[in-house]
Design a protein that fits this description.
Radius of gyration: 34 Å
Helix content: 25-40%
Number of helices: 23
Structural class: alpha+beta
CATH superfamily of one domain: DD-peptidase/beta-lactamase superfamily
Distance between the termini: 84 Å
Shape: globular
Strand content: 15-25%
Number of strands: 24
Largest sheet: 7 strands, mixed
């Protein structure tokens, strides 16, 4: 028994020693370089470069949209026991520098060179020593007693040195200070390195540049970490002097785009030597086709110019287009263009971000969602027809369709865009039957039923698009009978263009609301996929077959209905038009036109939405019904381009 115990204990010891040896081998060989690097970093022999090249942004076909180009920058990292104004003069000798310190900066510098008791009277010195005068009060006294002659001693060269000195002391003491980052020549760079000024060097940095200006606002921009967000970035492991994305795609995907900084070892003479090369960040591959974006931008610009020659377009200056895939939620083109008058000429400005953060009343284009309220609440009998008319509520003027439309069922009500049909559905939702001059007594619950259904289409809810700061539009806060009717025909709440795109995609997908995406993949430097934005279902609307009826109604809209002429019927499209009115001022209402479609109707490949805000207007003096057909022009040209070339 004792022999067995001995061998058992001996075996345990052997196993334990073997595990220790394996661990030692692992640490000494496999992880040696990692721990050596960590030791060097902790022992302050290693410093990071100022920045690293960010990942590129490319389109669906691999065309580079945003890239980096290298630049020289002069940097300073604080060292102890040196006169920084002397360093500033040394730097000044080696580079071209033309920025002078302001008068205030000169005064501040001068105050830092004098004693705290200089310029004070004997009584003031006594008060300060007795703590009856604060430090700030003393500084203010000194500031007011500096003579012009004393300031004049700082000649132009000295003023430049003070400007550099201020840069050396800007921000946190441990941050890398940028002395010059514009137009630093190779010769200046060589001079700085050769001069071997303590803490000062020339290093390689990177500047972000769009290769294509089209869509550039959506790419976003980079900058140093904003003060109000420093805690957020520090928690993620960033350094305060890091360059980060501060808007749109650059911000949304910053952690993927960030590169790895080059590490430098600091020699005994303060020169730097590359310790470990940095690397570029990961690439974003968009679902966007930049060629399509450019061609649609040109279509919009041509029609904006055309509109300047048409009647009643005084308030019209912008148009929006989105082309996407209903089956994936991927966006192929995102367009927002504004026309600006410049003397006798016109210029254009890209306003694409408005697509996610500016909202409009959309009008009848949203009636597919309104019909769904009717279907889901058993308010529609597909076999029943009604005769189009008007609704007159108590204390409210009569509300009608745009013209008498005759006998209608649910499909023809969509085809002809009957307001009366939607009004009856809204009245039925309250549990009542329409009668002339009735009081509806609508409640917030009735509004909520509409809004909750609309939200399942993306109307009034976030689409999940991979951009920061998406808004959901404006939800009306007044509960009134006539406003419930307005809500049902798209004349109350407002929605963003991206929401309208998700709405039409949801219809095309029979009730599946898919997240909208701009980025399809994130790729590493070898082209390997490290993130794949697969189609994501955000919500589903129960389909009992009525989506086929909505699609048929929308097909008829474009085949002889209100959308006739918007899209060539040969693409087998379905869609809906919309017109809404908004008060511009007390006497003027502007008219916005909208359009949403998809094709082919039975197997949708693409969807297109077009929004032309304020395309026309009405005033008491001008009540002509003419509306410039810009929305139809743009829709026809864009749909032809998409379905025949993409």
């Amino acid at each position: 028994m004792q022999t067995q115990r001995f061998y058992f204990r001996f075996s345990i010891i052997i196993i334990f020693i073997t595990i220790i040896n394996i661990r030692l081998y692992y640490l000494e060989n496999t992880k040696k370089s990692f721990y050596q690097e960590q030791y060097d970093l902790k022992s302050n022999n290693i410093i990071e470069g100022y920045s690293a090249p960010r990942g590129r942004i490319i389109d669906r076909n691999g065309i580079v949209l945003v890239d980096n180009y290298s630049i020289n920058i002069i940097t300073y990292r604080k060292v102890s026991n040196v006169s920084e104004i002397d360093l500033a003069f040394q730097i000044l000798k080696e580079i071209n520098y033309s920025i002078y310190a302001s008068k205030e900066e000169i005064i501040e510098f001068h105050l830092n060179t004098i004693s705290i008791l200089d310029y004070l009277t004997a009584n003031e010195k006594k008060l300060y020593q007795e703590r009856k005068l604060s430090y700030d009060q003393v500084k203010e006294i000194q500031r007011n007693r500096i003579s012009k002659e004393e300031l004049d001693q700082y000649d132009q060269e000295y003023q430049k040195a003070i400007s550099i000195y201020n840069l050396m002391n800007k921000g946190y003491s441990y941050e890398t200070k940028i002395i010059k980052n514009e137009n630093v020549s190779n010769n200046e760079c060589a001079n700085i390195i050769e001069a071997n000024i303590p803490g000062v060097t020339c290093e390689l940095s990177w500047k972000r540049t769009p290769v294509y200006e089209d869509l550039s606002p959506i790419y976003g921009s980079i900058s140093q970490i904003p003060q109000e967000e420093k805690d957020y970035y520090l928690d993620l492991g960033y350094n305060l002097n890091d360059l980060v994305g501060i808007s749109y795609l650059e911000k949304q995907y910053d952690q993927y785009l960030q590169g790895t900084k080059t590490l430098y070892s600091v020699n005994n003479d303060n020169t730097l030597e590359i310790y470990k090369e940095g690397s570029r960040g990961n690439d974003l591959q968009l679902s966007i086709d930049i060629k399509l974006v450019q061609e649609i931008n040109q279509i919009i610009k041509n029609n904006l110019l055309k509109s300047t020659q048409l009647k009643k377009t005084d308030y019209f200056n912008s148009a929006y287009v989105i082309v996407s895939s209903p089956s994936t939620g991927n966006i192929l083109s995102l367009n927002g263009i504004r026309i600006l008058k410049d003397g006798n000429d016109y210029t254009f400005k890209e306003v694409t971000p408005n697509i996610i953060n500016t909202s409009y009343t959309m009008g009848s284009v949203i009636k597919g969602a309104s019909m769904t309220v009717g279907y889901l609440n058993n308010l529609i009998n597909p076999n029943q027809k009604i005769y189009d008319s008007c609704v007159k509520l108590h204390f409210v003027p009569a509300k009608c369709s745009h013209k008498p439309l005759g006998w209608l069922d649910d499909i023809s009500a969509l085809q002809t865009s009957s307001n009366y049909y939607q009004f009856l559905l809204a009245i039925g939702l309250t549990g009542k039957k329409y009668s002339y001059n009735m009081e509806l007594n609508a409640t917030s619950q009735h509004f909520d039923i509409y809004r909750q259904t609309f939200a399942k289409f993306g109307l009034g809810s976030k689409t999940g698009i991979d951009l920061p700061n998406e808004t959901t539009g404006i939800t009306g806060n007044i509960i009134a009978d006539d406003l419930l009717l307005n809500l049902a025909i798209g004349q109350y709440d407002t929605y963003t263009p991206i929401a309208l795109s998700q709405y039409i995609n949801t219809i095309a997908s029979n009730g599946k609301r898919l997240k909208m995406n701009l980025v399809s993949k994130v790729l590493d430097n070898q082209g390997n996929i490290i993130l794949n934005n697969e189609p994501t279902i955000l919500s589903t609307i129960k389909d009992t077959g009525y989506f086929d009826r909505i699609k048929e109604g929308m097909r008829q809209v474009l085949d002889g209905g209100t959308g006739r002429g918007y899209v060539d019927p040969k693409y087998n499209p379905a869609g809906k038009t919309g017109t809404s009115e908004t008060y511009y001022d007390k006497t003027t209402t502007t008219i916005t036109q909208t359009f949403a479609m998809f094709a082919p109707v039975n197997n949708p490949k693409y969807s297109i939405i077009v929004i032309t805000p304020n395309v026309s207007y009405n005033t008491p003096e001008v009540d002509e019904k003419y509306i410039a057909p810009i929305n139809r022009y743009i829709s026809k040209e864009v749909s032809k381009l998409v379905f025949e070339n993409y």
